[in-house]
From TrEMBL:
GO molecular function, one term: tRNA binding
Protein name, as recorded: Probable dual-specificity RNA methyltransferase RlmN
Localization in the cell: Cytoplasm
Keywords: 4Fe-4S, Cytoplasm, Disulfide bond, Iron, Iron-sulfur, Metal-binding, Methyltransferase, rRNA processing, S-adenosyl-L-methionine, Transferase, tRNA processing
Sequence ranges assigned to domain Radical SAM core in this UniProt record: 99-329
Entry keyword Cytoplasm: yes
Swiss-Prot/TrEMBL cofactor(s): [4Fe-4S] cluster
The enzyme's E.C. designation: 2.1.1.192
Lineage start: Bacteria, Bacillati, Bacillota, Clostridia, Eubacteriales
Main location, first listed in the record: cytoplasm
Function: Specifically methylates position 2 of adenine 2503 in 23S rRNA and position 2 of adenine 37 in tRNAs.
Database matches in Pfam families: Radical_SAM (PF04055), RlmN_N (PF21016)
Length: 348
C-alpha cells in the first residue's frame, strides 16, 4: 500500500478535498464515508460509484484492514480479546465486552506505551509508534464484523496513552461519532489518561462530551511517584486542578481509576487521604483489584479490604464503586497478550 492513503483515516471533509482534487463531485465523499462505516474492505463494494471512479480511487487509496491473528473468548462472561496485526507487522489488542447496556469495545491508541507505569503489562515492551485514526477505528469495525454485534460503546483503555497521540485520537473520536459513520454518541465513549495535563485542558475545549477517566491509583505524590513516572512531571495537586478545570468547562463528571495493590495504596489512611483530596469534586472513584502481571510482584488487595476502602470513601462523601472483572480467564487486561506475544517473538 506504499504511498497510498488509507481511506479509514479520512474525515468527510478530507474526502471532499480528495474528490475535489480528482475533479469529482463533493457528494461522493458522503457515499464513500457511509460505505466505510458499514465496514466494507474492498473499494469495488462501493456499488454506487461507477467502475471508472472506483478504479481512479484505487490508484490513490486503499481500505486498511487489521488482521485477526488470535481471538480468546472468556468461558466465564463471553468477553473476547482480539490480537490484531497491523500492516507493518506490529501487534495490538482490543477487547469486546458485554454490559447491561450493550456491547463495548476497548481500543488501543498506540503500539506500546511510553508512560512506564509499574503495574501495567504494557510497560517493558517499549513504545513503537502511534496508531492512525483509521487503525483505531478499524478495531471497532473489525470486531463489529467478526462478532456480528452492534457496538454501542467505546472505551479508550487499551494499550497506549491516548493523550500522547492527541490529534489522531481526536480525529478517531470525531470519525466514530459521525452520524454517517458508526454514529456512537460521545456520551457512550470513555477515555482514560495517566494524567497528561496539557492534553486534559485541550480536551476540555474540544466540545466532545465523553467520560474522562483519570488513572490516579494513589492519594499522594509519594506513592504515585513510585507507581507512575508521569507524576514526576504532573503532580497530583496540579492534576486535580486540571480535572477541576475540565469538569467546570464540560460539566461532565470525572472518573478516578484506582487499582488497589496490597500494602501499597490500600490502607485506611490512603482512603482517607484520597477522600480529603477529591472532596467536593464532580467525580466518582472506580476501584479496581490490580491485575497481576508476570514479572511484577504486586498483589491484589483482598475482597474485604476493597469493600472496606470503598466504604471509607463513601462514608466521607465520595461516590465509589468496585469494577467488575471481565475476562479474568483470558488475560483480558490490556497489554498482557501483546506482552506474551512480543516475549515469544523476542525469544525466537
Ligand atoms: N494510558 C491510559 C490508558 C491505558 S491503561 C491510562 O493510563 O489511563 C487503562 C487503565 O488500566 C488505566 O486506568 C490503567 O492504570 C489500568 N491498568 C493498567 N495496568 C493495570 C493492572 N495491572 N491492574 C489494574 N489496572 C491496570
Amino acid at each position: 500500500m506504499e504511498g497510498k492513503v488509507n481511506l479509514l483515516d479520512l474525515s468527510i471533509e478530507d474526502l471532499e478535498k480528495l474528490f475535489a482534487e480528482m475533479g469529482e463531485q463533493k457528494f461522493r465523499a458522503k457515499q464513500v464515508f457511509e460505505w466505510l462505516g458499514r465496514g466494507i474492505k474492498d473499494i469495488d463494494q462501493m456499488t454506487n460509484l461507477s467502475k471508472a471512479l472506483r478504479e481512479k480511487l484505487k490508484e490513490l487509496c486503499y481500505i486498511g484492514k487489521l488482521k485477526i491473528i488470535n481471538k480468546y473468548v472468556s468461558a466465564i462472561d463471553g468477553t473476547a480479546k482480539y490480537l490484531f496485526e497491523l500492516e507493518d507487522g506490529n501487534v495490538i489488542e482490543s477487547v469486546l465486552m458485554e454490559y447491561k447496556h450493550g456491547f463495548s469495545v476497548c481500543v488501543s491508541s498506540q503500539v506500546g506505551c511510553k508512560m512506564g507505569c509499574k503495574f501495567c503489562a504494557s510497560t517493558g515492551i517499549g513504545f513503537m509508534r502511534n496508531l492512525s485514526p483509521g487503525e483505531i477505528l478499524d478495531q471497532v469495525l473489525s470486531i463489529q464484523e467478526d462478532a456480528g454485534k452492534r457496538i454501542g460503546h467505546i472505551v479508550m483503555m487499551g494499550i497506549g496513552e491516548p493523550l500522547d497521540n492527541y490529534d489522531n485520537v481526536i480525529k478517531f473520536l470525531r470519525l466514530v461519532n459521525h452520524p454517517d459513520g458508526l454514529n456512537i454518541g460521545f456520551r457512550n465513549i470513555s477515555l482514560s489518561t495517566s494524567g497528561i495535563i496539557p492534553g486534559i485542558i485541550k480536551l476540555s475545549k474540544e466540545g466532545i462530551p465523553l467520560t474522562l477517566s483519570i488513572s490516579l491509583h494513589a492519594p499522594n505524590d509519594e506513592i504515585r511517584n513510585k507507581l507512575m513516572p508521569v507524576n514526576k512531571k504532573y503532580s497530583i495537586d496540579k492534576l486535580l486542578e486540571a480535572c477541576n478545570i475540565y469538569t467546570e468547562v464540560t460539566k461532565r463528571r470525572i472518573t478516578f481509576e484506582y487499582a488497589l495493590i496490597s500494602g501499597v495504596n490500600d490502607s485506611d489512611d490512603n482512603a482517607l487521604e484520597l477522600a480529603r483530596k477529591i472532596k467536593g469534586m464532580l467525580c466518582h472513584v472506580n476501584l479496581i483489584p490490580v491485575n497481576t502481571v508476570a514479572g511484577v510482584d504486586f498483589r491484589k488487595s483482598g475482597r474485604e479490604r476493597i469493600e472496606h476502602f470503598k466504604n471509607l470513601l463513601q462514608r466521607h462523601g465520595i461516590e465509589a464503586t468496585v469494577r467488575r472483572e471481565l475476562g479474568s480467564d483470558i488475560n483480558a487486561a490490556c497489554g498482557q497478550l501483546r506482552r506474551s506475544i512480543m516475549e515469544e517473538r523476542n525469544k525466537n
